[in-house]
Give the backbone structure.
Amino acid sequence: MGFLDALFGRSRPPRADLDVLFAVPQAATTLRAEGCPFTGHGAVCFRDSEGGADDELIESARQMILTDPSATVDLRQDEFGFSWLEVVRPDDDLTALVTDLHAVNSTMAAQGFDTALLCSTFTFEHDGRPGALVYLFKRGTFYPFVPDPSAARRRDNPTELRIRALIEDEVPIEPDLGRWLAIWGAPGL
């Protein structure tokens, strides 16, 4: 932070600690023991910039992941205009999925697109329905997102809070519930 930033009270958000993503397999072990297995789906959400600078970067990351024939990669946009790079791996290969998403996030951040990164998701099942462990890039924290199957665009808040209690010792949980954003239309959900 520069002198003028300090003088005018501006601050820069702290850089996300992407290595915390490697704690997800431990959280997955806990969730699996509670009947919430991970599905092998994960994604990185970002704002696609105008022009082709990030397109080349995304294609490079996609090709890197596809060197493993057990992985599939898809790039899509949601209804809100955000781009999602979805990676699918076999259910029991969560470590490889974490490594893939870490590589995409790290590559984009290193090339100056860190302000475009929003979140990463790791999809799991709860009572036969999908949910996600969401990593907020700018906060360096996680939160659970579980849609309520009984109504469109409604969340299952009690389940989200139970999942938080299960994994709060394994991954840094976002303390501000107001930042637990709904990610409707995310791949795998």
